[in-house]
Design a protein that fits this description.
Elements (H helix, E strand, L loop, with lengths): L7 E11 L7 E6 L20 E4 L9 H5 L5 E3 L5 E3 L9 H5 L5 E4 L1 E4 H8 L3 H7 L2 E5 L7 H13 L3 E6 L5 H7 L5 E5 L5 H8 L4 H11 L5 E7 L7 H12 L4 E8 L5 H6 L14 H12 L7
Parallel strand pairs: 2-8, 8-9, 9-10, 10-11, 11-12
Antiparallel strand pairs: 1-2, 1-7, 3-6, 4-5
Amino acid sequence: MDQTDPTQGLIFDIKRFAVHDGPGIRTTVFCKGCPLRCAWCHNPEAISPKPQLILYSERCIACGACLEKCPSGAHKMEPSGKRVYHRDQCTLCGACVRVCYAGALVIQGREVTVEDVMAEVRQDAAFYETSGGGVTLSGGEPLVQVDFAIRLLQQCKREGFHTAMDTCGYADWNTIETILPYVDLFLYDLKHMDSQKHREWTGGANDRILDNLQRLSRSGVPIEIRMPIIPMINDTRELIESAAEFLSSLENITAVRLLPYHRLAGSKYERLGMDNTMPQVTPPTQDRMDEIAASIRAYGLEVV
């Protein structure tokens, strides 16, 4: 990818007919790269700002085609019959992917232009119009590729599409300010109110995130708060009430969407050759989610 070309970006998915990423029926564009390393991340393929090879071991039929085609010897078969993939030797040339008949090898992350994305977006224009939907930029973190994000959002606005951005808010305010004129709705993450614990669990302190949220709330753009609920990490009564008190002091907060923790993404880490950092905790029950929702509503906030 040409990092100097603002019309080019790196994405890992485009999800059509999305209904949880803003109002109406939407097309969600997932950008690659994120400044945080949340332990509970359910999209680990979004963290790296570079393409990655995913190995679905359960699909492998041991045909040996990848071993023959790999120019760097990254794919090998041990005498024991065990198939081994050496990521440190891989150049991501894609030769193995092209000959993998079983679909066991997939490169996650593809370079696209603004027009590439818009060609897919336009296919659902009628659904946006009838449902009040539009286009959402997610990730990863879209602000990592801010120039590409701006160009894409600008084109969406030219064509009359509602725009939303899902962000962790971990960026310079100047970066957020540059993209502000092209976003109709922010989906803003609020992960932990304790700065030290936030750093421990995400790799970054929350001071910048909270400050940016305060500034953003004064801009007049609607904001939906996204709160992951991770048992034993950020779900204590004190932390929930602290978050609710903080949010109730802000303007233009349309709703707080609670996202219960799940462990369904665990296998993704293995396929990417990454350490599985998912917390070994039990997902919250519906009763517990209802309790948290009630605590937040007590501060006059709408909860989804």
